[in-house]
């Protein structure tokens, strides 16, 4: 019990330090802040979800002491509770269909991706609701905040700075539309990457009791595609409903991008050039960004055309040894 207490304290302190690093304003602080959920997820996967919950609460308390209530709520809603919940679900298991306690059915990785999308969208929607319940009110508040950011950047750059900093109105109008869904997408990617990294770290340490899942075979719940379709259609509606639907649609579409990666990993399994193909896919996404849209389409198409099953039929059964 004492060890669990120390683990909870350490994970909360580490998460709080990573989250608070963004206040330093250095270039390294941004990637460090993105790693803030990692200690809490490690505690959940390697010890207990109760330890992770204690870490989330301890981290929120530490942030409250040094930075106040607003930052503390942001840490708890965006870092602590999502990290704890995803860690809890990852280690959730039940006896398999045969009723034997020796065989366990673990929480599916595809559902973890959907939960990450839900949590990322919920955080953005919570932020919107904190500003106000009107679309115009929210957009004006976001526009005002962006003007302050550009004003500070223009002051720091001086007269020789880019013209965009001095006349940013068009860019601000674009960001007001793009930032809410983009934030949901980044939240999903951050949670998924941290969960994967936490799993690798805990597995390497020998504390991961869950077998490593076959990520390339993940599937989504049947209604996910329908939900994405409805959210996409509603995103064209004017007002707050359109903003909310756009956030949900962006998060779910990015979830299908993750599924697209899984499909590519699966259908290239027996290719001699598999390493080259996968490296090219990852490099193009990291360098250009927009190819992830193609992966979103691949993941969404998998729901209807079952590329992995067709590739498995072509490969045939594994050779006997």
Q: What do you see in this structure?
A:
- The protein has 321 residues and is mainly α.
- It has a domain at 1-91.
- It is 75% helix and 2% strand.
- It contains 14 helices and 2 strands, in the order αααααββααααααααα.
- Strands 1-2 form a two-stranded antiparallel ribbon.
- Strand 1 (93-95) and strand 2 (104-106) form a beta hairpin.
- Helix 3 runs parallel beside helix 9, helix 6 packs antiparallel against helix 9 and helix 10 runs antiparallel to helix 11.
- The mean pLDDT is 88.
Topology at a glance:
Blueprint: H1 2-20, H2 29-34, H3 37-46, H4 49-67, H5 69-90, E1 93-95, E2 104-106, H6 109-131, H7 135-157, H8 163-166, H9 169-205, H10 224-234, H11 240-267, H12 274-288, H13 292-305, H14 307-315
Helix pairs in contact: 1-3, 1-4, 3-4, 3-5, 3-9, 4-5, 5-6, 6-9, 6-11, 7-9, 9-11, 10-11, 11-13
What ranges have pLDDT less than 50 throughout 5 or more consecutive residues? none
Q: Note the beta-strand portion.
A: under 5%
Distance between the termini: 48 Å
Which range best describes the helical content: under 10%, 10-25%, 25-40%, 40-55%, 55-70% or over 70%? over 70%
Could you give the order of the helices and strands?
Answer: HHHHHEEHHHHHHHHH
> Order of strands in the sheet with the most strands?
1-2
Integer-rounded radius of gyration = 22 Å
User: Main sheet?
Assistant: 2 strands, antiparallel
Based on secondary structure, the structural category is mainly alpha
Average pLDDT figure: 88
Write down how many β-strands occur, each being a DSSP E stretch of 2 or more residues: 2
Enumerate how many helices there are, as a single number: 14
Specify the overall morphology.
globular
Query: Which oligomeric form is depicted?
Result: single chain
């Amino acid at each position: 019990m004492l060890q669990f207490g120390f683990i909870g304290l350490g994970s909360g302190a580490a998460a709080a330090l990573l989250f608070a690093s963004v206040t330093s304003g250095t270039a390294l602080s941004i990637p460090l802040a993105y790693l803030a959920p990692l200690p809490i997820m490690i505690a959940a996967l390697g010890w207990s979800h109760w330890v992770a919950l204690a870490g989330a609460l301890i981290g929120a308390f530490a942030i409250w002491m040094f930075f106040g209530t607003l930052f503390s709520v942001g840490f708890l809603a965006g870092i602590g509770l999502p990290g704890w919940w995803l860690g809890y679900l990852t280690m959730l298991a039940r006896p398999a269909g045969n009723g034997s306690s020796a065989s366990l059915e673990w929480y599916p990785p595809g559902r973890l991706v959907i939960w990450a999308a839900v949590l990322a969208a919920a955080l953005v929607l919570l932020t919107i609701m904190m500003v106000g319940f009107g679309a115009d009110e929210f957009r004006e508040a976001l526009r005002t905040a962006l003007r302050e950011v550009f004003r500070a950047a223009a002051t720091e750059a001086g007269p020789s700075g880019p013209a965009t900093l001095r006349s940013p109105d068009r860019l601000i109008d674009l960001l007001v539309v793009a930032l809410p869904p983009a934030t949901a997408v980044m939240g999903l990617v951050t949670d998924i990457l941290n969960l994967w990294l936490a799993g690798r770290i805990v597995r390497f340490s020998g504390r991961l009791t869950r077998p490593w899942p076959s990520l390339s075979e993940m599937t989504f719940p049947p209604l996910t595609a329908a939900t994405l379709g409805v959210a996409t259609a509603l995103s064209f509606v004017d007002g707050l409903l359109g903003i909310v639907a756009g956030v949900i649609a962006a998060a779910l579409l990015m979830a299908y991008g993750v599924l697209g990666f899984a499909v590519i990993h699966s259908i290239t399994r027996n290719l001699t050039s598999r390493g080259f193909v996968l490296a090219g896919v990852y490099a193009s996404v990291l360098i250009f960004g927009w190819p992830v849209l193609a992966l979103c389409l691949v993941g969404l198409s998998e729901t209807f055309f079952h590329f992995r099953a067709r590739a498995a039929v072509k490969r045939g059964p594994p050779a006997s040894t």
